[in-house]
Design brief:
single chain, ABC transporter involved in vitamin B12 uptake, BtuC, two-stranded antiparallel ribbon
Length: 387
Amino acid sequence: MKPDRKQGNQPETRPERESAGRAHRFWNAVKIPILAILISLVAAGVIIAVTGSNPFKAYYALLQGSGLAPKSSYANYKSMLTDFLSYVNYFTPMIFAALAVAVALRAGLFNIGVSGQMLAAGFTATVLVGYSHLNAVAAKPLVLLIGMAVGGLAGALVGFLKYRFNINEVVSTIMLNYIFQYVVSFMINTYYVDPVSRQSKEVSPASRLTLMDTPVGNLKIDIPLGILAALLAVVLVWILFDRTKLGYELKAVGFSRSAARYAGIRVGKCMVLSMTISGVLAGLAGVTYYLGYMGSIQPKVLLNTGFDAIAVSLLGSNNPFGIIFSTMLISLIGKGSTYMRSAAGVDTEIASVITGMILLFSACSAYFRYRMERKKRDKEQTVKEEK
């Protein structure tokens, strides 16, 4: 007759301990970002109140500006749905960019060059496809493929420099950012500038990854096609991390390169592959921004998206599904800040303060995790002493 574990003080089996450990790590991964967000919202609310505004009204205005809450009135052909789809179009490139950072971090590398890789991919796709006469059926997939190829090559170059010459990836990506920025600016100002907007010429509607001003009933909606590719990328990166041999090798290299090398893992190959995949995702971020959300390129400007993506990835615990929610949160603040100014009288700079607060407290996640782990150990020790 088998003993009843519930009636005695039988020790847990190894599978039970492993299951409990996984559950504990999962809830810590969820609780810590939520705790950081709540603390930051309270701190930012205090700052808003000190400036003489209502923090609750300001936060509600952020939701209204992003299409997550109804406004009191709308312009012609606009509604809550049009605001929401514009918000989705706005944060789609950030999902790709944050995934690019997460893949590199998995192998212990920092891809600071996401913005430069976005620019290189977006410009190449713009020149080769955006200014062509291809129809939509051929142009849109070709834009994605060119973005992946150019971004992947840029990432692979960084990985190769790291593997072959031990050049720090932070230094090489920052230098490549400047190279891409000024080369693209020269090309635009010399050959492709629009004399009115002083930006690059608009890409063709057939090549654009956003269906602009699409009539739906009595509305004109911007339909972001890139969000489908972004959600697919989230699933594929999750499979790469948790269901493939390469994902395990990247994780091992990220923890300890010497230990991974001792275990027979080809560290150099993993570093090059991780930066290549990271570059592919950054390239997709570039084409969904420049040939999706914007439709043109502003010379001499390097987007903050690639740098913000680092914080977004960390806030999402480098988990592909967590990145979706952290992207939505950070993008909500940026997208709704303009309406917050008009509806609640709060300066748009406060949105940057809120974002900074969230990122500051998310950077303290190691401390929060330490406190939670210590509390758990103290509780277990107390139970053992009682037994």
